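Sanity check. The docking grid for geranylgeranyl diphosphate depends on where the pocket ends up, so I'm generating a full predicted complex first rather than guessing from homology. Inputs follow.
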Amino acid sequence: MQWKNKMNEYMLMVNDALETYIGEHQSVNEEVFEAMKYSLFAGGKRLRPVFSLAVCELLGKEPKQAIPYACALEMIHTYSLVHDDLPAMDNDEMRRGKPTNHIIYGEGIAILAGDGLLNKAYEIMIDHTLKLENPSFGLKAMKSIADASGTNGMIGGQTADLLNEGKKVDERTLAYIHHNKTGALIAAALKAGSYMAEVDDDEAEGWERIGYALGLAFQIQDDLLDIEGNTSEMGKPAGSDERNKKMTYPALYGIEASRERMDELTKEVQMFLKPYGEKSNFLVMLTSALMNRRS
Ligand code: GRG
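Predicted complex below; grid placement will be based on this.
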């Protein structure tokens, strides 16, 4: 399948670049450096960086132009998972079939490894943006990523999630949590990728909007997989106590309505991609594969 070859090609580009970036990180504090690498190379799907590269290429530029921002997104995503697994948050011992960061390195180092990844993400983006002939697109990509990761994005969504644990949340709160916790970083991946193809703000906002739809569809599928008894994204046992403390889309709307909403969102994404013709084949196929995944 051609799209799978493309996926592998993008993943290799991302993994090579991550190795290089993290290799440049000369630290006398080996322990934190090892902990950062442990989670960064623990088998993530690399979806966010792949989205950035694919959008950049679809819009006619070399995907490698988006690499620094794509790798920064993966580092931010990884830091969020390391912190999310800590005893003060989800208290998880396993992720992606492996012991979580704090189980191996201890809580203190896991906190610092997360902080280290977050900081490294900005070091990479700033270094690269400073070298650009026209830094404004780099700055816009960076701002999209910073906004999406912050208190009006992922951290905001995580805060609402934490504060509502064990409660029956209403539709508005659930929408806020999903939009920010899952959607924002995926939306930023598409938006940053489009900025690296030097599009104007209106076009970049179109990519961002469709990224939010994709993020929600992805979240609903993740929650459905958990109910159906498959291993979910978190590498936690399906239906685990921790996940059961959280309100999910299927818990609020039911399984049927959730499937319908996921299909509707997937169609919305594919309709958006349609005018790009063949160039959008990869993203169309990847979106379908994500929504049909069984684990
Ligand atoms: C600690 C600030 C802070 C935020 C944590 C990402 C997150 C916010 C929590 C993780 C829990 C969760 C259910 C997130 C929803 C998004 C999601 C499905 C994340 C997993 O993404 P994948 O499947 O992960 O892309 P891999 O393992 O492939 O990298």
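Relevant for the grid: DSSP finds 14 helices and two strands in the chain.
Also worth noting: The two ends are 20 Å apart (CA to CA).
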